TrEMBL record:
Span of domain Fe-S hydro-lyase tartrate dehydratase alpha-type catalytic: 7-270
Protein name per Swiss-Prot or TrEMBL: Fumarate hydratase
Keyword annotations from UniProtKB, A to Z: 4Fe-4S, Iron, Iron-sulfur, Lyase, Metal-binding
Family: Belongs to the class-I fumarase family.
Length: 282
């Protein structure tokens, strides 16, 4: 396969782990001006960490996370899967990324970040010769405080807001705030989780195109920041950099909700193939 090869996926993983997307870094620089005292010192340390990782080409965080792939293509899925698997094997040694995946029963680590149902790849069929691979790396600190709810549909938007705020409040400083909150609403349990991850792939200042969701995003950002948890949990004006919502229609008797909390180090990157050339974009 000449369009997407192992080398470019390894390079994308290197950039994913060692450099933050520009929109996230700009947002951190923006909120720095709002913070005072200890919270400003914390944000300064985060910004310094980003610069050091970029210059020294080392991972931004020691927890290089579970790497998840979102693939849109019209090619043979098996070929792309094999290329991604080989890229993960190489990235463990070459980036390097930490071998995080273990058997959930024995906790045995195979040392290559693979295993049963790994790497995690979501395929979506596109019938135009175009290939897009979005890559997301998410660590355990933020994953462990994320939550899934099957709400009573009678609770409506008020119930959604209460669940989101309660999740963030209980997470406190554990997910390394300022956080980005990806929210999946509707579908069923597993689709709500998938939608919440897709929400994290959106540019940080891109609001939902659906007015109800857009208004909810803005209300939640304000309410989360009013919690006062602040950078790294030391207090301050900024607990969340962004809230993004993706949604789907659901069963009339259910209201699935996933609150997917992401630390400040939102590591995402994309590989695009337009039929002629392949490039890495942030």
């Amino acid at each position: 396969m000449n369009d997407i090869d192992t080398d470019i996926i390894v390079e994308a993983i290197r950039k994913l782990e060692c450099d933050l997307p520009e929109d996230i870094e700009r947002k951190l620089l923006e909120i720095r001006e709002k913070e005072e005292g200890l919270s400003r010192i914390v944000v300064d340390s985060i910004i310094e960490n980003i610069k050091y990782a970029r210059e020294e080409k080392v991972p931004i965080c020691q927890d290089t996370g579970i790497i998840e792939f979102f693939v849109k293509c019209s090619k043979e899925f098996k070929k792309i899967k094999k290329v991604i698997e080989e890229a993960i094997r190489r990235a463990v040694k070459e980036v390097p990324i930490r071998a995080n995946t273990v058997n959930p029963f024995t906790r045995e680590n195979q040392g290559e970040n693979l295993g049963r149902f790994h790497p995690i790849i979501h395929f979506e069929y596109e019938d135009d010769g175009f290939i897009e691979i979005d890559i997301l790396a998410k660590g355990a600190g933020s994953e462990n405080v994320s939550r899934v709810y099957m709400l009573d549909p009678l609770k409506g938007i008020k119930g959604i807001k209460e669940a989101v705020i309660d999740t963030v409040r209980k997470a406190d400083g554990k997910p390394c705030p300022p956080i980005i909150v990806g929210i999946g609403i509707g579908g069923n349990m597993e689709l709500a989780i998938h939608l919440s991850k897709c929400a994290l792939l959106r540019p940080i200042n891109q609001r939902s195109s659906y007015e109800v969701a857009r208004n909810l995003e803005e209300e939640l950002i304000e309410e989360i920041n009013n919690l006062g948890i602040g950078p790294m949990g030391f207090g301050g004006k900024t607990t969340a950099l962004n809230v993004a919502i993706e949604w789907a229609h659901c069963h009339t008797a259910s209201l699935p909700l996933c609150v997917n909390i992401q630390c400040w180090a939102l590591r995402r990157i994309s590989i695009l193939y337009d039929g002629k050339e392949t490039k890495i974009v942030r």
